[in-house]
Specification:
The protein has ten helices and six strands. The protein is of the alpha/beta class. It folds into two domains: about 160 residues, 3-Layer(aba) Sandwich (Rossmann fold); about 50 residues, no CATH class. It has a six-stranded parallel beta sheet with strand order 2-1-3-4-5-6, sandwiched between helices. The two termini are about 20 Å apart. It comes from Saccharothrix longispora.
C-alpha cells in the first residue's frame, strides 16, 4: 500500500484505547504500525492527521465519526493517502436523522441532565463497559463533543466518488446505529471500495474482528485495478 503507518481515529466520545483494541494487532500482522492519536472532536482529529503527515503517503481511517473525518481528509489530500480503513460508517453528507446522530444528541442531553452514570443506565454488556471507561475521560467536554458529532458532516456520495485510493469498509450486519445500508452506500460510491462484515456479537467477543474485516477489505480493494 506504499505506507507502513496507519493513523486511526476514534468514534464519537470513544478513544484511542478502543481504536488500539480493534486495530493494533491486525495492523501489526499486516506490516503496519498504528498511530492512534488521543484526539477529541472533529477539529482535533483533523489536526492529528495533518500532524502525522511527514511526506510519505499514509493509511488513514477510524471508527464511525473517526472514519468520516479520515475519509474527508483523504478526499482533500489524495496525494497524502495510500488507503483508507473505514469501520462502521454512520451516514453520508449532513447527519440529519441518522441513528448515530440522534443517539449522540440524546446522549448529550442525558449527560447534562443526569451525568454519565445516569445517561448509561440500561447500557449493558461490552458496549456499556466501553462507554463507562471512555466517557469519563472527556470530563466537562463530553456533552459538547457528543453534540458536535451529532451535527457533523460526513463525506457525500459525490466526494466518495472522487476518492481513488483503495478503501476497506467494515460494518456489522446487525448494528442499528451504524446501518449496513450506509456501509453499502459508501462502497457503491467508492471507485475502489470493498465491504467486509461482522456482527455485534462477534465484536463483543473479540474487538479485532472489526479491524481484520477492514484490513481484509483494504487488501482486496488494493488488488483492484484503477480506471474503468
Amino acid at each position: 500500500m506504499g505506507s507502513s503507518r496507519a493513523v486511526l481515529l476514534p468514534g464519537t466520545a470513544s478513544d484511542e484505547v478502543f481504536v488500539a483494541s480493534v486495530f493494533a494487532r491486525p495492523l501489526a500482522e499486516a506490516g503496519y504500525s498504528l498511530v492512534a492519536p488521543p484526539s477529541r472532536g472533529v477539529a482535533e482529529h483533523v489536526d492529528a492527521l495533518d500532524a502525522a503527515w511527514a511526506g510519505r503517503p499514509l493509511v488513514v481511517g477510524g471508527v464511525s465519526l473517526g472514519a468520516h473525518v479520515a475519509a474527508s481528509w483523504a478526499v482533500r489530500h489524495p496525494e497524502r493517502c495510500a488507503g483508507v480503513l473505514v469501520a462502521l460508517p454512520a451516514w453520508n453528507g449532513p447527519a440529519g436523522d441518522a441513528p448515530a446522530a440522534l443517539a449522540a444528541a440524546a446522549s448529550a442531553a442525558a449527560v447534562e441532565a443526569v451525568g454519565v452514570d445516569g445517561a448509561l443506565t440500561g447500557v449493558d454488556g461490552w458496549l456499556g463497559d466501553e462507554l463507562r471507561r471512555a466517557w469519563p475521560r472527556y470530563g466537562r467536554r463530553l456533552a459538547d463533543v457528543l453534540r458536535e458529532a451529532a451535527g457533523s458532516v460526513a463525506p457525500t456520495v459525490a466526494e466518495l466518488g472522487r476518492l481513488g485510493v483503495p478503501v476497506g469498509v467494515a460494518a456489522c450486519t446487525d448494528d442499528p446505529v451504524h446501518p449496513i445500508g450506509t456501509a453499502r452506500t459508501w462502497v457503491d460510491a467508492l471507485p475502489r471500495g470493498v465491504l467486509r462484515t461482522t456482527t455485534l456479537a462477534e465484536l463483543g467477543a473479540d474487538r479485532e474482528v472489526l479491524g481484520r474485516a477492514a484490513l481484509d477489505a483494504l487488501r482486496e480493494a488494493g488488488a483492484r485495478p484503477t480506471g474503468p
